[in-house]
Amino acid sequence: MIYRITFGFAGAGVGWAETHAMLNASNNPKDLMPTLTDIANKRAQMLGREFTIVGIRASRYATDAGARTRGSFLSKVQIKNAVQTASAAAEPANVALIVRGAAEPSQLLPQFDANTNQSFLGAPLDVSVDNAGVVDPGKGGLGAAFASWRSAMLATTVGWLANQTIFDSPITTIVQNPNGTVQITTTGDTVGSLIIGQYYKARIRAVNGGQSPLNGEVIVYLTANNSLRTKEVIGLGLAQEGGSIRVYKQVQPFVDYGDLTLNLVTGKHKRGRPFGSIPGRAKNRIRG
Questions:
Q1: d(CA 154, CA 174)
Q2: Which spans in 111-198 are helix H?
Q3: Eight-state DSSP code of residue 110
Q4: CATH 2.40.30: which residues of the chain?
Q5: Facing residues of 173 across strands?
Q6: Which has the closest alpha carbon to 201: 160, 158, 161?
Q7: Three-state DSSP class for 154?
Q8: pTM of the complete model beyond 0.70
Q9: What whole-number distance in Å separates Cα of residue 185 and Cα of residue 239?
Q10: pLDDT digits (tens, 9 = 90+) for 102-127
Q11: Tell me, what's the pLDDT at 283?
Q12: Alpha carbons 83 and 144: distance in angstroms, whole number
Protein backbone atom coordinates (compact mmCIF):
# COMPACT_ATOMS: atom_id res chain seq x y z
CA MET A 1 0.00 0.00 0.00
CA ILE A 2 1.23 3.50 -0.88
CA TYR A 3 0.47 6.17 1.75
CA ARG A 4 0.73 9.93 1.89
CA ILE A 5 2.36 10.87 5.19
CA THR A 6 1.83 14.36 6.60
CA PHE A 7 3.53 15.89 9.64
CA GLY A 8 1.70 19.02 10.82
CA PHE A 9 3.43 21.97 12.55
CA ALA A 10 2.28 24.99 14.52
CA GLY A 11 3.82 27.86 16.47
CA ALA A 12 4.18 31.65 16.63
CA GLY A 13 0.82 32.07 14.90
CA VAL A 14 1.75 30.13 11.77
CA GLY A 15 1.96 26.55 10.65
CA TRP A 16 2.77 24.28 7.77
CA ALA A 17 2.78 20.63 6.75
CA GLU A 18 5.56 18.41 5.48
CA THR A 19 4.41 15.57 3.26
CA HIS A 20 6.19 12.42 2.17
CA ALA A 21 5.05 9.08 0.78
CA MET A 22 5.45 5.66 2.37
CA LEU A 23 5.25 2.08 1.15
CA ASN A 24 3.90 -0.32 3.76
CA ALA A 25 2.45 -3.84 3.76
CA SER A 26 -0.38 -2.92 6.14
CA ASN A 27 -3.77 -1.85 4.83
CA ASN A 28 -4.53 -0.05 8.12
CA PRO A 29 -3.04 3.48 8.37
CA LYS A 30 -3.09 3.26 12.18
CA ASP A 31 -0.43 0.55 12.01
CA LEU A 32 2.07 3.12 10.68
CA MET A 33 1.87 5.34 13.76
CA PRO A 34 4.64 3.76 15.90
CA THR A 35 7.15 4.22 13.05
CA LEU A 36 5.89 7.71 12.19
CA THR A 37 5.90 8.84 15.82
CA ASP A 38 9.55 7.80 16.11
CA ILE A 39 10.36 9.80 12.97
CA ALA A 40 8.39 12.79 14.34
CA ASN A 41 10.28 12.70 17.65
CA LYS A 42 13.57 12.87 15.78
CA ARG A 43 12.27 15.55 13.40
CA ALA A 44 11.19 17.76 16.33
CA GLN A 45 14.78 18.00 17.57
CA MET A 46 15.53 20.25 14.56
CA LEU A 47 12.76 22.69 15.54
CA GLY A 48 13.27 25.96 17.33
CA ARG A 49 11.69 26.44 20.75
CA GLU A 50 8.49 28.16 19.55
CA PHE A 51 7.43 25.41 17.14
CA THR A 52 5.77 22.04 17.67
CA ILE A 53 4.63 19.00 15.73
CA VAL A 54 0.89 18.87 16.40
CA GLY A 55 -0.33 16.09 14.13
CA ILE A 56 0.65 13.04 12.11
CA ARG A 57 -1.66 11.86 9.34
CA ALA A 58 -1.34 8.64 7.33
CA SER A 59 -3.64 8.50 4.30
CA ARG A 60 -4.03 5.57 1.94
CA TYR A 61 -3.17 6.78 -1.56
CA ALA A 62 -2.96 3.78 -3.87
CA THR A 63 -2.47 0.05 -3.93
CA ASP A 64 0.80 -1.47 -5.08
CA ALA A 65 -0.91 -2.12 -8.42
CA GLY A 66 -1.64 1.60 -8.85
CA ALA A 67 -5.37 1.62 -8.06
CA ARG A 68 -6.57 4.71 -6.17
CA THR A 69 -7.78 4.04 -2.63
CA ARG A 70 -8.85 6.10 0.39
CA GLY A 71 -8.85 6.04 4.18
CA SER A 72 -6.77 7.93 6.73
CA PHE A 73 -5.80 8.11 10.39
CA LEU A 74 -4.84 11.30 12.26
CA SER A 75 -2.79 11.17 15.44
CA LYS A 76 -2.97 14.43 17.42
CA VAL A 77 0.34 14.89 19.21
CA GLN A 78 2.43 17.60 20.88
CA ILE A 79 6.11 16.97 20.10
CA LYS A 80 8.70 19.67 20.82
CA ASN A 81 12.45 19.97 20.81
CA ALA A 82 13.68 18.48 24.07
CA VAL A 83 15.86 21.56 24.61
CA GLN A 84 13.67 24.46 25.79
CA THR A 85 16.17 27.21 26.61
CA ALA A 86 16.93 30.70 25.33
CA SER A 87 19.56 29.26 22.99
CA ALA A 88 16.88 27.08 21.36
CA ALA A 89 14.95 30.08 19.97
CA ALA A 90 13.82 29.68 16.36
CA GLU A 91 14.69 31.64 13.26
CA PRO A 92 11.74 33.59 11.79
CA ALA A 93 8.84 31.50 10.55
CA ASN A 94 9.73 31.94 6.87
CA VAL A 95 13.30 30.64 7.30
CA ALA A 96 13.61 26.98 6.37
CA LEU A 97 16.29 24.35 6.27
CA ILE A 98 16.38 22.66 2.86
CA VAL A 99 16.71 18.89 2.60
CA ARG A 100 17.41 17.19 -0.70
CA GLY A 101 16.36 13.61 -1.28
CA ALA A 102 17.89 11.34 -3.90
CA ALA A 103 15.98 8.43 -5.41
CA GLU A 104 16.82 4.85 -4.52
CA PRO A 105 17.59 2.91 -7.76
CA SER A 106 14.47 1.00 -8.83
CA GLN A 107 14.07 -2.00 -11.10
CA LEU A 108 10.40 -1.16 -11.63
CA LEU A 109 10.83 2.59 -12.27
CA PRO A 110 14.39 3.14 -13.54
CA GLN A 111 13.30 6.41 -15.24
CA PHE A 112 13.24 8.05 -11.79
CA ASP A 113 16.68 6.88 -10.63
CA ALA A 114 18.29 10.28 -11.27
CA ASN A 115 15.45 12.25 -9.68
CA THR A 116 15.84 14.44 -6.63
CA ASN A 117 13.28 15.85 -4.22
CA GLN A 118 13.40 19.04 -2.15
CA SER A 119 11.74 19.55 1.24
CA PHE A 120 11.60 22.66 3.42
CA LEU A 121 12.13 22.00 7.13
CA GLY A 122 10.93 25.13 8.89
CA ALA A 123 11.88 26.99 12.05
CA PRO A 124 15.54 25.97 12.62
CA LEU A 125 17.38 26.95 15.78
CA ASP A 126 18.65 30.53 15.56
CA VAL A 127 22.12 29.52 16.73
CA SER A 128 22.48 27.12 13.76
CA VAL A 129 21.99 29.83 11.11
CA ASP A 130 24.07 33.00 10.68
CA ASN A 131 22.91 36.37 9.35
CA ALA A 132 23.70 35.34 5.77
CA GLY A 133 21.51 32.22 6.05
CA VAL A 134 24.49 29.86 6.15
CA VAL A 135 23.75 26.70 8.11
CA ASP A 136 26.27 25.34 10.62
CA PRO A 137 25.33 21.74 11.56
CA GLY A 138 27.91 21.86 14.34
CA LYS A 139 25.85 24.33 16.38
CA GLY A 140 22.75 23.68 18.44
CA GLY A 141 23.07 19.95 17.94
CA LEU A 142 21.64 20.32 14.42
CA GLY A 143 24.04 17.88 12.75
CA ALA A 144 23.36 15.12 15.27
CA ALA A 145 19.58 15.74 15.13
CA PHE A 146 19.58 15.61 11.34
CA ALA A 147 21.64 12.40 11.28
CA SER A 148 19.18 10.78 13.71
CA TRP A 149 16.16 11.85 11.63
CA ARG A 150 17.83 10.82 8.37
CA SER A 151 18.61 7.38 9.79
CA ALA A 152 14.98 6.90 10.88
CA MET A 153 13.67 7.99 7.48
CA LEU A 154 16.00 5.70 5.53
CA ALA A 155 15.36 2.74 7.86
CA THR A 156 11.82 2.44 6.47
CA THR A 157 10.41 2.76 2.96
CA VAL A 158 9.74 6.51 2.81
CA GLY A 159 9.98 8.63 -0.33
CA TRP A 160 7.82 10.84 -2.50
CA LEU A 161 5.22 10.69 -5.27
CA ALA A 162 6.65 11.53 -8.68
CA ASN A 163 4.98 12.98 -11.76
CA GLN A 164 4.93 10.42 -14.58
CA THR A 165 4.18 11.82 -18.06
CA ILE A 166 1.59 9.95 -20.09
CA PHE A 167 0.89 12.52 -22.82
CA ASP A 168 2.99 15.37 -24.23
CA SER A 169 1.94 17.33 -27.28
CA PRO A 170 2.12 20.71 -29.02
CA ILE A 171 -1.06 22.81 -28.85
CA THR A 172 -2.82 23.74 -32.08
CA THR A 173 -5.75 25.89 -30.89
CA ILE A 174 -6.95 27.51 -27.65
CA VAL A 175 -10.58 28.63 -27.31
CA GLN A 176 -12.42 30.17 -24.35
CA ASN A 177 -15.68 28.37 -23.55
CA PRO A 178 -18.84 30.35 -22.62
CA ASN A 179 -18.46 29.27 -18.97
CA GLY A 180 -14.88 30.60 -18.77
CA THR A 181 -13.06 27.29 -18.99
CA VAL A 182 -10.58 26.80 -21.83
CA GLN A 183 -10.69 24.24 -24.64
CA ILE A 184 -7.29 23.04 -25.87
CA THR A 185 -6.75 21.11 -29.09
CA THR A 186 -3.53 19.13 -29.47
CA THR A 187 -1.64 17.59 -32.36
CA GLY A 188 -0.88 14.38 -30.45
CA ASP A 189 -3.36 11.49 -30.52
CA THR A 190 -4.87 10.95 -27.06
CA VAL A 191 -6.34 7.53 -27.92
CA GLY A 192 -4.95 4.93 -25.50
CA SER A 193 -3.34 7.58 -23.26
CA LEU A 194 -6.25 9.40 -21.63
CA ILE A 195 -9.80 8.44 -20.64
CA ILE A 196 -12.68 10.73 -21.57
CA GLY A 197 -14.12 12.56 -18.56
CA GLN A 198 -11.30 11.67 -16.15
CA TYR A 199 -9.38 14.51 -14.48
CA TYR A 200 -5.61 14.76 -14.90
CA LYS A 201 -2.92 17.08 -13.62
CA ALA A 202 -1.12 18.84 -16.47
CA ARG A 203 1.41 21.58 -17.17
CA ILE A 204 1.09 24.06 -20.03
CA ARG A 205 4.21 25.76 -21.37
CA ALA A 206 5.19 28.58 -23.74
CA VAL A 207 1.70 29.79 -24.72
CA ASN A 208 2.05 33.34 -26.15
CA GLY A 209 5.80 33.04 -25.78
CA GLY A 210 5.49 32.25 -22.07
CA GLN A 211 3.28 35.31 -21.30
CA SER A 212 -0.14 33.79 -20.64
CA PRO A 213 -2.26 33.00 -17.56
CA LEU A 214 -2.77 29.56 -19.11
CA ASN A 215 0.87 28.63 -18.52
CA GLY A 216 1.61 26.55 -15.44
CA GLU A 217 -0.17 23.72 -13.63
CA VAL A 218 -3.80 23.03 -14.53
CA ILE A 219 -6.38 20.29 -14.09
CA VAL A 220 -7.79 19.06 -17.39
CA TYR A 221 -10.11 16.38 -18.69
CA LEU A 222 -10.54 14.84 -22.13
CA THR A 223 -13.77 15.74 -23.95
CA ALA A 224 -12.91 14.16 -27.31
CA ASN A 225 -9.84 12.85 -29.12
CA ASN A 226 -7.17 15.60 -29.17
CA SER A 227 -9.42 17.95 -27.17
CA LEU A 228 -8.85 18.84 -23.49
CA ARG A 229 -10.81 21.21 -21.25
CA THR A 230 -9.56 22.98 -18.12
CA LYS A 231 -11.47 22.37 -14.90
CA GLU A 232 -10.95 25.93 -13.65
CA VAL A 233 -12.03 29.25 -15.10
CA ILE A 234 -9.07 31.08 -16.63
CA GLY A 235 -9.33 34.68 -17.80
CA LEU A 236 -7.78 35.19 -21.26
CA GLY A 237 -7.58 38.83 -22.33
CA LEU A 238 -5.70 38.22 -25.59
CA ALA A 239 -5.72 35.66 -28.38
CA GLN A 240 -3.72 32.59 -27.34
CA GLU A 241 -1.38 30.65 -29.59
CA GLY A 242 1.50 28.20 -29.53
CA GLY A 243 2.79 26.26 -26.58
CA SER A 244 2.52 22.66 -25.50
CA ILE A 245 0.80 20.58 -22.83
CA ARG A 246 2.16 17.73 -20.73
CA VAL A 247 -0.35 15.48 -18.94
CA TYR A 248 0.65 13.36 -15.96
CA LYS A 249 -0.52 9.97 -14.76
CA GLN A 250 -3.47 10.32 -12.40
CA VAL A 251 -2.00 8.00 -9.74
CA GLN A 252 1.58 9.09 -9.07
CA PRO A 253 4.22 6.37 -8.70
CA PHE A 254 6.17 5.98 -5.46
CA VAL A 255 9.88 6.82 -5.43
CA ASP A 256 11.95 5.65 -2.44
CA TYR A 257 14.53 7.87 -0.72
CA GLY A 258 18.04 6.51 -1.26
CA ASP A 259 19.67 9.38 0.64
CA LEU A 260 18.84 12.67 2.37
CA THR A 261 21.26 15.60 2.42
CA LEU A 262 21.03 18.82 4.43
CA ASN A 263 21.59 21.96 2.36
CA LEU A 264 24.03 24.36 4.04
CA VAL A 265 22.09 27.48 3.04
CA THR A 266 18.55 28.20 4.23
CA GLY A 267 15.64 29.10 1.98
CA LYS A 268 12.41 31.04 2.41
CA HIS A 269 9.19 29.07 2.70
CA LYS A 270 5.86 30.83 3.14
CA ARG A 271 3.85 29.61 6.12
CA GLY A 272 0.09 29.51 6.51
CA ARG A 273 -2.30 28.70 9.33
CA PRO A 274 -1.26 26.40 12.16
CA PHE A 275 -1.88 22.78 11.19
CA GLY A 276 -5.38 21.65 12.13
CA SER A 277 -6.90 25.14 12.36
CA ILE A 278 -10.27 25.75 10.73
CA PRO A 279 -9.90 27.79 7.52
CA GLY A 280 -12.16 30.66 6.60
CA ARG A 281 -14.43 30.63 3.58
CA ALA A 282 -12.43 30.44 0.36
CA LYS A 283 -13.22 33.08 -2.25
CA ASN A 284 -14.11 32.10 -5.79
CA ARG A 285 -11.19 33.15 -7.94
CA ILE A 286 -10.63 33.42 -11.67
CA ARG A 287 -7.11 32.68 -12.80
CA GLY A 288 -5.85 35.33 -15.14
A1: 46
A2: 142-154
A3: G
A4: 165-248
A5: 185
A6: 161
A7: helix
A8: yes
A9: 15
A10: 999 987 789 889 899 999 998 899 99
A11: 64
A12: 14
